[in-house]
Write a structure and sequence with these properties.
single chain; 347 residues; alpha+beta; twelve-stranded antiparallel sheet
Length: 347
């Protein structure tokens, strides 16, 4: 009897081992990157080629002005890079920003998707240093197969998680960060799908957006009713490495509205070119070309390095050579009813 029991136990043990050996491996975590990490309800998407823009004199000038106007920013930036050993220009390749209406309280629905040579531990230190100067409260939870990090410092809260080994999603709205990392519908099949197909995503900087209703209504008023309806959306592409090459396009409700807006823009640019003569910028303004193509209105301009420098010099001269007062704590954004800055493009 004892022999039978031992045999049965051995058979059972072997069967259990075989079952364990035959058990399928855990499912691989699906990769989420770039546009695949932006939820379908996004109404604004911006794409940046960080390495290309790092070589741009125009972008470098903007950063220098930012540091001059806010000396404390220099220290914060240097501390952030030093604590994490992050060289943004070399380690970050592409950045995508996305926004959508909604969000509770001060939590705007916005996310940043960064792609490059990153790892979770370094990024946790990086965000902790940036938000709390090293003193933030960092916690982590599981959302499906993803780890969602929460960093709190004072009134500031940031959530982030990795979509794949080289891609991180960061934002102030927990549900939107979770949606970005989940398997649900993404922006390529949402309301911005057509614009994302039309825009040149190889540009150094590009953006697409659904037209904000209030801004659209304002444009209708500005044209004196020449257009019957506001644009449905807008896209733009920018290359600031050699001078400036820029293209923007508005999608109108009809070919008639597109022709009317193009005609209105040409008249306004003609007047603007004459006024710009006072600053020696008439030829630069005159280089802005406007054309209606079906229901779209396209604006294009190409400036040489010399022409761009003339424009920037005129801007500096008109603005007194710089910003006299320090920037506002809210970045100059209009405030929402709860006192938090509103997102660009929102009413």
């Amino acid at each position: 009897m004892r022999s039978c029991a031992a045999a049965l136990a051995a058979v059972a043990l072997c069967a259990a081992c075989k079952k364990r050996e035959a058990a399928p491996p855990p499912p691989a975590v699906p990769a989420v990157a770039a546009l695949a990490a932006i939820p379908s309800d996004a109404t604004v998407v911006v794409g940046l080629d960080v390495r290309a823009l790092a070589d741009s004199d125009l972008v470098g000038r903007a950063l220098r002005q930012m540091f001059v106007s806010d000396p404390g920013l220099t220290g914060r930036f240097e501390r952030l890079a030093g604590d994490c050993g992050v060289d943004v220009a070399r380690q970050i390749e592409h950045v995508h920003l996305a926004m959508a209406p909604g969000g509770l309280g001060p939590a705007r629905r916005a996310i940043l998707v960064a792609t490059g040579r990153l790892d979770e531990e370094a990024l946790a230190r990086c965000l902790q240093a940036g938000v709390g100067a090293g003193g933030g409260d960092l916690s982590v939870k599981q959302a499906g197969v993803r780890s969602i990090y929460k960093l709190v410092e004072g009134r500031h809260t940031v959530y982030f998680g990795f979509g794949q080994a080289d891609t991180v999603v960061v934002g102030p709205d927990e549900t939107w960060v979770e949606a970005a990392l989940a398997d649900g519908p993404k922006v390529a099949t949402g309301g911005l799908a057509r614009l994302l197909t039309a825009v040149d995503q190889t540009s150094d900087l590009w953006f697409v957006a659904q037209m904000d209703p209030e801004l659209g209504a304002s444009l209708v008023r500005t044209t004196g009713g020449a257009i019957a309806a506001p644009p449905r959306g807008v896209l733009a592409e920018l290359d600031p490495r050699a001078g400036l090459v820029a293209h923007a396009a508005f999608t109108m409700e009809s070919d008639t509205d597109a022709n009317q807006l193009a005609e209105f823009a040409r008249r306004e640019l003609a007047v603007g070119a004459m006024a710009a003569q006072l600053y020696g910028l008439g030829p630069a303004v005159a280089k802005i070309a406007v054309a209606a193509q079906g229901p779209e209105v396209h604006f294009r301009v190409r400036l040489t390095d010399a022409e761009l420098k003339d424009v920037l010099t005129a801007i500096d001269r008109a603005g007194g050579g710089g910003q006299d007062a320090p920037p506002l704590a809210d970045g100059g954004l209009p405030l929402t009813p709860d006192g938090s800055p509103s997102q660009p493009g929102s009413p």
